[in-house]
Amino acid sequence: MGEIIAIVNQKGGVGKTTTAVNLAASLAISRNRVLLIDLDPQANATAGFGINGKIITHTVYELFISDVGIKDLVIPTEMKTLYVLPSNERLIGAEVELVDMPSREFILKKKLEQVKDDFDFIFIDCPPSLGLLTVNALVAAKSVIIPIQCEYYALEGLGRIVGIINQIKNSFNSSLEIAGIALVMVDLRTNLTREVIREVKNYFQDKVFKTLIPRNIRLSEAPSFGKPAILYASFSKGARSYLNLAKEVKRNAEKS
Amino acid sequence: MGEIIAIVNQKGGVGKTTTAVNLAASLAISRNRVLLIDLDPQANATAGFGINGKIITHTVYELFISDVGIKDLVIPTEMKTLYVLPSNERLIGAEVELVDMPSREFILKKKLEQVKDDFDFIFIDCPPSLGLLTVNALVAAKSVIIPIQCEYYALEGLGRIVGIINQIKNSFNSSLEIAGIALVMVDLRTNLTREVIREVKNYFQDKVFKTLIPRNIRLSEAPSFGKPAILYASFSKGARSYLNLAKEVKRNAEKS
Ligand SMILES: Nc1ncnc2c1ncn2[C@@H]1O[C@H](COP(=O)(O)OP(=O)(O)OP(=O)(O)O)[C@@H](O)[C@H]1O
Ligand SMILES: Nc1ncnc2c1ncn2[C@@H]1O[C@H](COP(=O)(O)OP(=O)(O)OP(=O)(O)O)[C@@H](O)[C@H]1O
Ligand SMILES: [Mg+2]
Ligand SMILES: [Mg+2]
Fold it and tell me: In whole angstroms, how large is the CA radius of gyration of chain B?
């Protein structure tokens, strides 16, 4: 299968990492073979699995700047079929160092060739920018999930992310599709949430996942215990909503 | 006075814009002369005052790449003593274009010389990164406010922002100080919030502002009406907390 999915949105703090970590874990719990790649120098997805990025010598940074293969970099997690390609601060240098590299947009795509068939799903958690790291993710990916926080400012940048995806589709990766829009931190009691949902459904039509991810304290507590929500608080609304989203993602992937 | 304050945190979505917009408005309401500079290509601070960045020809981008002065770029707002230096998507190009410019770190500082005495407070809203735009803000500023969301991931990157501030202080701007740490989106009912507040106070000691900014729906609704909270919902907890924070910022500025 080797479904490669990038989690992208240049707006900061909108739930990219929370979505990447919990989708990966929700698919792994039902024995799908999953790889989570942390492409953010903040290394939140790495920390979300309790891995201390600061003490690791081989991270995704080394993947970009040396000949080391992915197989030598992935780290097992407490979930049997889930592996993480960790990140740390050194990745900050990559945005600048990639600029002068030949086929700089294709580095991640080429390296992923080696492991594509070893995993059913490969998720790439992206930083809050549309620089060369995110471009590498969009070139390597088959599809994109865009988490959208139900807030006014979160609506402002949607045109840009769609623009970039179309640019990449027309230049480097003709098979790139939008897998779906994930509405997150949903609080149906507020007008703002309902208004944002209406606007997003207007704009993206049937691309919007049916599963809504509620604002749920367990989702923000879980990373402080180094666990995805399904392990930290498996009966919580947050954990269950990501299980439902994972089912939807898997069902859509099998159809395409 | 001309107190130049940068609002900085590379972690995304932690309340930088909300803090910049509402501090600026809270000081302007009591007749302080205030300039808000939007240094983020997402242009959320611009949208927060109902200004449509897409239709403006002269923005902060032109400030960096041409000889135009700040006086020709500032836009009045519905608040008599508050002006905005707007942004839009064109600013995305600046991060790359600045790389080869002479004294690229000092461009904003030099341009601000012209207007420093026309304002009591100048706030600079920064993007979620520590690139050349944020460096320009840190070189131009006298002090920095770091908003910290009461979440686990928000703690991860604190070492980095403090590191950058010290680097700038030692190289380009010896008078740069931390004006304070603003704890935002506080919900005292949760363990996570109380834990984060404890850790932040441990790390930053008396640099933490006494005013806590609660999570308050009016703060996230206000930008959809193009107004700061003090004009949209003046009696809300959110608006009042920023009034208190503004008082604290002003008091500290007069002492130093
Ligand atoms: N559904 C939710 N309910 C409650 N809290 C959430 C939810 N989703 C995310 N959070 C919290 O909101 C904050 C932002 O989420 P997250 O870090 O996943 O966003 P991000 O888009 O990855 O941020 P960045 O742009 O910095 O990479 C985190 O502290 C996270 O724990
Ligand atoms: N105290 C608060 N209560 C409720 N919502 C808030 C509060 N502060 C900010 N928000 C909302 O949280 C979201 C993130 O805040 P904001 O956009 O100000 O963060 P930022 O750090 O400027 O983000 P970016 O990194 O993208 O620039 C916004 O939708 C905002 O309306
Ligand atoms: Mg993230
Ligand atoms: Mg902002």
Answer: 17
- 8 Å CB contact between A27 and A121: yes
Check pLDDT > 80 for residue B1: no
Distance from CA of B175 to the nearest CA of A (A): 27
Query: Chain centroid to CA A132: how far?
Result: 16
> How far, in Å, are A44, A49, A60, A109, B9 from residue A55 at the CA level?
14, 14, 14, 27, 24
Per DSSP, the three-state class of B99 is helix
- The Å distance, Cα A85 to ligand 2 centre, comes to 29
What pLDDT score does A183 carry?
Answer: 98
Ligand 2 pocket: which residues have CB below 6 Å? A 11-13, 151, 153-154; B 12-18, 40, 42, 44, 128, 184-185, 213, 215-216, 219-220, 238
Nearest CA in chain B to A131: B92
What is the C-alpha to C-alpha distance for residues A36 and A25, in angstroms, rounded to an integer? Answer: 9
- Relative to the CA of A11, which ligand 2 atom is closest? 26
Distance of alpha carbon B121 from alpha carbon B253, whole angstroms: 10
Grouping H, G, I as helix, E, B as strand and the rest as coil, residue B167 is helix
pLDDT for B214 = 98
Per DSSP, which regions of chain B are E strands?
3-7, 34-38, 75-76, 82-85, 121-125, 143-149, 177-184
Ligand 2 atom closest to Cα of A152? 29
The enclosing H or E element of B1 equals: none
Distance, CA of B43 to CA of A111 (rounded, Å): 36
Please tell me whether residue B84 adopts helix, strand or coil conformation. strand
At A1, the pLDDT band (50, 70, 90 cuts) reads: low
Sequence-distant (6+) residues with CB within 8 A of A41 are A87, A88, A89, A90, A91, A92, A94, A127
* CA B79–ligand 3 middle distance (angstroms): 36
Measured CA angle at A113 (ends A109, A114), to 5 deg: 130
- Give the angle B95-B50-A165 at the CA atoms, nearest 5°: 45
Distances (CA, A) of A104 to A72, A107, A161, A231: 21, 6, 20, 37
Q: Ligand 1 centroid vs A184 CA: distance in angstroms?
A: 9
Compute the distance between CA of residue B156 and CA of residue A74 in angstroms, rounded to an integer.
22
Q: Using a CB-CB distance cutoff of 8 angstroms, which residues of chain B are in contact with residue A220?
A: 151-152, 192
DSSP SS3 for B121? strand
Share of chain B above pLDDT 70, in %: 100
Average pLDDT across chain B, whole number: 96
